[in-house]
Amino acid sequence: MGKIIAIANQKGGVGKTTTSINLSAGLAYLGKKILLVDFDPQGNATQGVGATRQSFVKSIYDVIMTEVEVKDAVKTMKIPPLDILPATIDLAGADLEMVEYKYGREKLLKNKLVAVKNDYDYIIIDCPPSLGLLNTNALTAADSVIIPVQCEYYALEGLTQLLSTIRLVQRLFNNKLMIEGVLLTMFDARTKLSVEVQQEVRRYFKERVYKTYIPRNVKLSEAPSRGATIFEYDVKSEGAKAYASLAKEVISYNAKEAKANEKG
Ligand code: ADP
Ligand code: MG
To answer: Residue span of the signal peptide, if any (predicted)?
Structure first.
């Protein structure tokens, strides 16, 4: 059974999309079967894995708002070796259209992903930078959530709001939703601030903070303009090493969890 992981933080620019792309690719290069769901109308994850607008017809909008199935909209990439469910700006309209629905509007994504859950080891959802219905759909569909936290001032401030949204979704729509992990991004070991934010986040989330942190690395910001993940763009970069390490950490955490579930 595949695991659905949402990469969420309502704050923009914290590294959600960079993490969605490069964690997906990192897992794929380790032999895992991956579906990356671009759930942000900006479509940055779609472009980031090299899926050009001309190369697909259906998108995530068609999947959640019409009878189109996931498998009819998925595009299989060769490099990186993963499937992408692409997003276009159409998705921005879905947020508004859904408001009109009386019933089940929180479960539109979940209802469609069910059909392909067994086809993948991990389904990674790149969430939009808001706490609207799209985000609720992602958290309702997900088994767990990875929260990227940028190492900067006020890093923890928005988290209170995100955590209360997670609790609300747990209570109303998805009582199995877990926090998969908290990921420190754009870490700069030379600044006191990065170190302080790290300590504060670790104090709060304890062992749920990944040992791997993502350093600030210019290669990570350059790769998307080439339609490449960090592994094709510069596999020797610090960014590539960090995301490879994160992928291993995610796999080993889930292997441990699966074992624990078998026992008890
Ligand atoms: P979000 O999806 O949360 O809005 P992005 O992943 O798009 O955030 O990142 C915001 C910007 O920061 C992008 O231009 C991205 O290329 C850049 N960026 C993300 N992570 C890093 C990093 N570790 N080092 C340097 N630049 C980064
Ligand atoms: Mg993004």
So the answer is: none
